[in-house]
Amino acid sequence: MNSLHDNQLRHLEALGQSLWLDYIERDMLVNGELERLIRDDGISGVTSNPAIFEKAITQHAEYDKSIALLARRGLSAQDIFEELAVEDVCRAADLLRDVYETSCRRENCGRDGYVSLEVSPHLAYDTAATVAEAQRLWKRVGRPNLMIKVPATQAGLSAIRQLIAAGININVTLLFGVARYREVAESYLAGLEDRLANGGALDHVASVASFFLSRIDTLVDSFLDRDNRAQAPELRGGALRGQAAIACARLAYREYQELVRSARWQALAAHGACPQRLLWASTSTKDPAYDDVKYVEALIGPDTVNTLPPETLAAYRDHGNPSLLLKKQMKAARALPGQLAALGLELAAVSDELERQGVQKFIEPYDRLLAILARRATELVA
C-alpha cells in the first residue's frame, strides 16, 4: 500500500459511514495496534461482546499476570472478568478519546469514538437488573465515550428507554428484524423525551441500533435449502439465498430515514439530540459461497456504522470497492418478505428465533469464560 489514499477503508467516512472494530484484546491496546487502526484505517469505535472477550482472554497469555493478582485478592471468576473487561474498555476509550472529542466539536454531539461494554447476557429478560447493571458499569468506567450494550429483547426495550432518559449511551444489540427496530427507535425517542421533560440535556447522549446480518442469511438459507421451496416452484433455483439480511437492513434504513424526517424527531433535534444510527453487526461472511465483504459492500450509506472483525477489516482493506449501495434495490427488498412468506417463512418468526439464539450464543461463551477463569486463577495462584 503506497498511501492512505489507497486504503479502501478510508473511503467509507467520505461516504457517510463510520467504521468500528468488532474486537478487543489487551495486546492490541498496549502495542500500538489500535492506534494504528485509528490512524491508518479510520477506525472510530470499538465493539465487544462476551464471545469476543472469551476469545481474547482465553487465547492470550498477557492476561495471566492480572488474573493471578486478582485471584490473590480473593475475587470470584465473575469479578475477575469484570476487572479485565473494564480495564480493556477504559484503555480503548482513552485511545479513542480524541476521535470522540473531534466528533463532538464537529457535530455538537459525539457520533464516534465509542467503546461498547455489554451487560451480562443472563440479564437479557430482566429489565430492572439490566438497568441496575448498566448504571453501575457506566459509573465504574467513567468515560463519556462508553456505550453500554443492551439486548433488543422486550425487557431490553424498557431498559433502553430508562437508560437513555438517565443520559447513558446505549448500543442496542441482538437486533434481527425491522419490526423490532421500530420498537428500539421508539424506546430511544421516548427516552430522549423523558429526559427533556425532566430538564436534562440531550446533546452528548448517543445510541446505535446494532442490526445483526449474517445470522439472518444463515437461518433463512437453511430454510430455503430444504424442500419447502416446492410450495412455490417459480422461486426455485436459490434466487433468494443470501438476500434476506441485506434486504432487512435496507428496509430498516428506510425506516430510519422516515424517522429522522418526522416532526417528532425534528423537535428533539432542535434540542441537540443525536440520531440513533443503524450499526451493521455480524458482518463476517458465514457461507464460504458468499463474498467475504458481502455485508460491507452492499450496506454503505450516510448516517450508518459498520463494525468489522479483524478478518473482514483486512479483506475490505485489500479488495473493497466503496460505493453508495445501501439505498439501491429497494423494490426487491420490499418484495422479499412476501416472497419468503409464500414459501412458508415469516421474517417475524426469523427475528424471534434469532433473538432467542443470540441471547444463548452470548450466555454460552460468557459461562465458558467464567469457568476457564476460575480454573486459571487456581492454577496461577498455585
Q: From the structure provided, what is the oligomeric state, counting identical versus distinct chains?
A: single chain
Q: State the CATH superfamily name.
A: Aldolase class I
CATH architecture: Alpha-Beta Barrel
Shape: globular
- Give the rounded overall mean pLDDT: 93
With strands numbered from the N-terminus, the spatial order across the biggest sheet is 1-2-3-4-5-6-7-8
What is the topological layout?
Blueprint: H1 11-14, E1 17-21, H2 26-30, H3 33-41, E2 43-46, H4 50-59, H5 64-72, H6 77-95, H7 97-107, E3 114-118, H8 127-141, E4 146-151, H9 154-165, E5 170-175, H10 178-197, E6 207-212, H11 214-224, H12 244-261, H13 263-269, E7 277-281, H14 294-297, E8 304-308, H15 310-319, H16 330-342, H17 347-381
Parallel strand pairs: 1-2, 1-8, 2-3, 3-4, 4-5, 5-6, 6-7, 7-8
What does this structure look like?
With 382 residues, the chain is α/β, with parallel strands linked by helices. The chain has a single domain, classed as TIM Barrel (Alpha-Beta Barrel). The protein is 55% helix and 11% strand. The chain has 17 helices and eight strands. Strands 1-2-3-4-5-6-7-8 form an eight-stranded parallel β-barrel, surrounded by ten helices. Strand 4, helix 9 and strand 5 form a beta-alpha-beta unit. Helix 4 runs parallel beside helix 17 and helix 8 packs across helix 9. The chain is globular, with a radius of gyration of 21 Å.
Summarize the structure.
The chain is of the alpha/beta class and 382 residues long.
